[in-house]
Write a structure and sequence with these properties.
By secondary structure, the protein is an alpha+beta fold. It has 2 domains: 10-52, no CATH class; 61-143, no CATH class. The chain has 5 helices and 5 strands, in the order βαβαββααβα. It has helices at residues 19-36, 49-53, 89-95, 100-109, 129-143, and strands at 9-15, 39-45, 66-73, 80-88, 120-125. The chain has a 3-stranded antiparallel β-sheet with strand order 4-3-5. Strand 1, helix 1 and strand 2 (39-45) form a beta-alpha-beta unit. It is elongated, with a radius of gyration of 26 Å. Mean pLDDT is 82; it is low at 153-157.
């Protein structure tokens, strides 16, 4: 097989059907390469069955985030909160109805609705739960959010 520079090779991605079809396409692409004077290589890609069966739901980027340190900023006042979750953040946002955030929205603004995703921002994506805990503590120390009331973290003097 003759070696050529990668930049002169045109690769095309094609769905894999079966080996007989693959061999036929390879021969046709090889003939095409000779005719046009450019090396064309087919790349056969197989799709997993679950990709065809699973419905595609487009979610906002924040919904898919997990193992993150996040902040909440009330859009009606300056109240803020810093927290972390190892789960998908959309699950944690729903749970905030019964937290300091939910209590603030009801007591300060008479809102019975849950906080909106637009009020949350990812501060840090983490690799482990321990990393989340460390960064949550550092962000709380730096930002000093008004709705964080727990004092069960290490002192970083």
């Amino acid at each position: 097989m003759k070696r050529v520079k990668d930049s002169s090779v045109v690769r095309i991605s094609l769905p894999f059907k079966d080996q007989i079809s693959t061999n036929a396409v390879r021969k046709q692409v090889k003939d095409l390469s000779h005719m046009i004077g450019t090396i064309v290589e087919p790349i056969f890609v197989s799709k997993k069955l679950e990709q065809d069966l699973k419905p595609k739901e487009i979610k906002p980027p924040i919904v898919n985030q997990q193992r993150v340190v996040y902040s909440f900023l009330c859009d009606l006042c300056d109240a803020d909160y810093v927290g972390y979750t190892a789960r998908h953040i959309h699950q944690r946002i729903v749970e905030h109805k019964n937290s300091a955030i939910g209590k603030h929205l009801v007591e300060a603004h008479g809102q019975l609705d849950n906080a909106k995703e637009s009020q949350f921002r990812i501060l840090r994506k983490c690799q482990t739960k321990f990393e989340c805990l460390i960064y949550e503590m550092l962000f709380i120390k730096e930002i000093n959010p008004s709705l964080n009331t727990q004092c069960k973290t290490l002192c970083l003097n």
